[in-house]
């Protein structure tokens, strides 16, 4: 348990600290629905990439 907020630079670093051994964070972490972080992240990138943005648009 942490007594204050602790930010990690990578999912692997966070998983390693929590588990106490080396872990591949992108596969060690899962969403509440059981989806691996790596799959969730890929979906987020794909969704963001599919959006089109107009420069200067409100």
How would the blueprint of this fold be written?
Layout: H1 11-19, H2 25-28, H3 37-50
What can you tell me about this protein's structure?
Helices cover 47% and strands 0% of the residues. It is elongated, with a radius of gyration of 16 Å. The chain is mainly alpha-helical and 58 residues long. The N and C termini lie far apart (44 Å). It contains three helices and no strands. It has helices spanning 11-19, 25-28, 37-50.
Q: What is the overall shape?
A: elongated
Number of helix segments?
Answer: 3
Structural class given helices, strands, pairing?
Answer: mainly alpha
Strand content: under 5%
Helical amount among residues, as a percent range? 40-55%
**SSE arrangement, N to C:** HHH
Number of strands: 0
**Arithmetic mean pLDDT:** 87
- Which stretches are poorly predicted, pLDDT < 50 over at least 5 residues? none
Instruction: Kindly provide the radius of gyration, computed on alpha-carbon positions and rounded to a whole number of angstroms.
Output: 16 Å
Major beta sheet summary: none
> Whole-Å distance between the termini?
44 Å
